[in-house]
Amino acid sequence: MGKALIIGCGGVASVAIHKCCQNSEVFSEICIASRTKSKCDALKAKLDGGDTKITTAQVNADHVDELIAIIEAFKPDVVLNLALPYQDLTIMDACLATKTNYVDTANYEPVDTAKFEYKWQWDYRERFEKAGITALLGSGFDPGVTGVFAAYAQKHYFDEINTIDILDANAGDHGYPFATNFNPEINIREVSANGSYWEAGKWIETKPMEIKRVYDFPEIGPKDMYLLHHEELESLGLNIKGIKRIRFFMTFGESYLTHLKCLENVGMTSIKPIEFEGRQIVPLQFLAAVLPDPSTLGPRTKGKTNIGCIFQGKKDGKDKTYYLYNVCDHEACYKEVGSQAISYTTGVPAMIGTMMVMTGQWNRPGVYNVEEFDPDPFMAALNKWGLPWQESFTPDLVD
Ligand code: NDP
């Protein structure tokens, strides 16, 4: 049916590319382009032989001219950005210059400030509208599926949603004292930042890990979870009718938190460059280089993830509660595509979002977050492509 250019070839991209190849009716041709071409070639060698034609290319996605050249040569219907958040704007610029649709999984962050805001990407709205192309922002799990869950709850179960609690639990054990499940630099920037939640039309800021709750997750059991800022709070706060409070919680084990605190205390999580043996280095980038590569955690991770949203609001004048979640098993993911569940739960929705744009089911010129489109075809695709969801009308609540 169509062609996708996939930029980046790390943990998440590997899963999305496996899934595109399983879905060759939609993805007849893909080009994998990344900074390190040997990784693209190795993945192509693993997946070649199916119905999806695969090519590879080298690109530095910090450079718009290199991106434009690749897009002009391959002529994709959609560019799927699975590099790092730092490259979002250069890739969007190249899409504008070539009038090509754009999909990503994480909002733009400037390298020198850990700021999680959509403002830079939302600023492209008018230019994408004028160019007649779609940008779909945040099509991973959180953000991504969490926004689709919210749109689905709103469409089918509520007249108004008043509160949303997004709960992200990872009960996986990789056997290392400290490792991150996706890009270490991006992950540590996120969890060491101040927390915040949205209430009564404004942001309430908290210290990192200041608010802790225990939640008894279906199929996982009780886990400590901590309130974090997360990018979808910003878009859902605007896009969901009647919302009064929205919070995001993620589970962390004691060993992870103790290591993180210690690394913070000695300055290893800082993103301010320092002078080291005559050259500038960023401590967090150095730390990321010595930590285990998340894409190698697959064979050693056991256990499950459970990510979902609890909605409270009103239907026909009555109070209503609804919990939508997905449970994913690390070992089953590894068996299927050679990756652990964090890459899997992000890579599958990245493929689905790209499919939605490619098939025209989600196609509207401009820049949109996932919850602004009809959730039904995405929800059906989650069940079909490996992330079946479950629902409860009587869940435990978070106080
Ligand atoms: P990885 O570090 O495993 O992979 C990143 C890839 O991008 C690597 O192949 C890297 O190349 C490539 N890359 C980095 N910089 C450039 C550049 N300048 N030009 C070209 N390629 C580049 O990261 P993950 O796969 O773990 O994460 C990918 C994205 O997914 C991130 O943006 C992350 O924030 C997002 N994410 C979203 C989630 C969600 O639920 N929404 C959850 C988890 C992740 P090289 O091999 O040379 O290093």
TrEMBL record:
Domain Saccharopine dehydrogenase NADP binding: 5-136
Annotated ranges, domain Saccharopine dehydrogenase-like C-terminal: 140-386
Family matches, as SUPFAM superfamilies: NAD(P)-binding Rossmann-fold domains
Pfam families the UniProt entry points to: Sacchrp_dh_C (PF16653), Sacchrp_dh_NADP (PF03435)
PANTHER family: CARBOXYNORSPERMIDINE SYNTHASE
Protein name: Saccharopine dehydrogenase family protein
The organism of origin for this protein: Acetobacterium paludosum
